[in-house]
Amino acid sequence: MPESTKTRVIKTTYIDGIKSKPSLKSYKSGNLAETVENISDQSISNYLEPVAGPSLSAEDPCHNAHTQDCDSELLKILQEAEAELQDNLIKKTSGYSRTSKEYQESETVWKTRMETKEKEFEQQRDSLFEKIQEQICSGGTFCCASCHSSPLYVVRCGKCRQHLCAKCDLEKHRTLFTHKRTCVLDDQLLTLGPCEFVDHAGAIIIINIPIPLYEPSCCNSCFSSGSVRLSCGPTRVAVITKEGRFDVTSTLFVCSVCKVSRLATNEEYMYSGYWPGSLSHNSYFIEEDLISFWHHLRHKTPGTSERKFIETLEEISLDNDRVNIINRTLFNRSRREFEFHQYLLEKTIFRRHGKCKICGPHPHGMHADANRKLYRFAEASDRLGLSLYGDVRMAYDDSQLEHISKIEKKIPKAKGKGDDLCGSSTWKAAKGETSSKRNLDITGLEMMSCTHGTVVYSANLLKGETFKHTNLQHLKSHEMGTKFFCNDVVCKYWPFAIKVGHLFPEYQQLTKDMKPFLSRFHGLGHSWTCRVLYNGHWEKGGADMLGEEQEQVFSYMARLGATTKHQSKASRRDDLTSAILYFNSEKEKRMVTALCLWMNRAKERSLLYRKKLQNSLEHRDVKEEELPSILDRLKKQAKLVNSKNLTNDWDKQLLQKELEGECHMLKVMHARNANFFDTVGSPNTSTFER
Fold first, then answer.
1. Is residue 57 packed enough to be buried (19+ CB in 10 Å), middle (13-18) or exposed (0-12)?
2. What are 184-210's pLDDT values in tens digits?
3. The C2H2-type domain covers which part of the protein (predicted)?
4. What is the reported pTM?
5. Are the C-beta atoms of residues 368 and 454 closer than 8 Å to each other?
6. Is residue 47 within 8 Å of residue 26, measured between CB atoms?
7. Which of 241, 295, 308, 594 could form a disulfide with 287 if both were Cys (CB 3.0 to 4.6 A apart)?
8. Cα–Cα distances in angstroms (integers) from residue 15 to residues 3, 21, 49, 345, 625, in the given order
9. For residue 18, what is the enclosing H or E element?
10. Residue range 257-309, pLDDT digits in tens
């Protein structure tokens, strides 16, 4: 998007009655995504609804004028973004591709540029080392950056980038305890601690420093305004920041009028950005900036060890001559509370519930699948306490077991492996029953996501993936008003769902109101009859959905198994829920750009598919009006073949149909492979030709 269009939109919202102007980032990830699908049909005035607080009257002329201005501005932005994406797509699909000569030229230019940079460092490496050595040795005379005197003992602050005398250093760093300060005493470079200062004689003195907090507006005793000052408390406390551990003193509030003093409360520490590790003993605090940094890092790189992150902070503390012991249990407690409170803020104030705004109240389709990598060892220790999130994105184990036991009352457990063969593949998910693992308490995680890749449901697998687990996901998707239910083995599950509907009348609508959808890429391993009967793209409204959206989620979530397999049940549930919410939030931020890109791709593909269809119809001398009847005959033939799938009394006609179908699928696969191997190495082949 051009730079001139990035900052022209200003939207006024009301949070708890307070007028505010959110940044452009909120337009990329917030309510703007809700208007993209209806941008050509209706006004964008709904986008201007307040986030919270009192509503704005639609009859207000000022509000209408402001709405129209924002409407025109938003339309311009979306049109320009769509035009830019369209240009990029045309360039990408126009058949242009760099030749091998152009590839060689670009590689040569890049190699030359890298060699030039390497030579620059080689030529200046000695001078750079001299400067680094000078910085460490801290030799020479310096003037104080504050009073401009020439002191005998100079304190260098690596954070302020200043040289200070002893007096100015004490005045400036009595509240900035996280700054790294060094001083040369007796020809030795010393790193000063947060409470260590240098006097005029060159001796190190200890001065207690409290944790800097926001001062209360008035005294709780005499109610005098602006009279409360910070002072040092009676106890030593540890503060953990991105620079490591700092040992200072607790904070005391003293009134300059009535001289009454009191200790700061946990709420006042948290208000100032310091999260207590324990509410009963105020001796351990984690800085909010550090928790926020770790929150984003652990979700951007799932599976990263929290233990190693804390060990990194300990090494930083040790490098700066400070105490390097950090309590992992208290750090984990503060981090979990911080993430949960951030979720509450998103839910109550910003009204972001982690749901897909594009799907709305009636999602187009849901893809259900299970991941066996998110297991939990049975020997993992389990702590007391409940999960903070509860069933926000993960169903309780009891509700799942209750649903399974309800079905087992009328469909008892079957012996044997069951019918898990389809086509030439054996599907582990196509099981009616499963057994538990000896060393696993939880064998995996089943999840369900919408067409846009937003996770809407998940639950633990206590034994293994069965149709009874899938039926619960099917039930949840039906409650959301979903039209298509996607699954990797929907050809085996759908007869089971029909059977459950016959035995339980309350579940009959699951198969009547929804349509089965066989995942596109998993469908390549199924028989031709499954593709004919359960191919969602042959259903009206199937669109260009893959039915593989959950696989993209698993590529992110599966990496969490490295850490969650050793956690307690409550901690595992909290971490997985937090990861799901973070994943959904990141998906929402990219949704506006993705929708524009998908729309342009759909336009291009619709033209391509229309052209291919016309060529096929002309080649086979078939009219487009005859396609529905042809599809009906194919489905009847597929049902006849499936009805004899488990018997040996095949007649010649059914055997001939089955062989014809298998022969056709072999020809299709051969043609695809031949086309791929012929074009994958060609530099001048366009995207759609491939």
1. exposed
2. 888 788 899 999 999 988 899 999 999
3. 157-179
4. 0.76
5. no
6. no
7. 241
8. 29, 10, 11, 12, 56
9. strand 18-20
10. 999 999 999 999 999 999 999 988 888 999 999 999 999 999 999 999 999 99
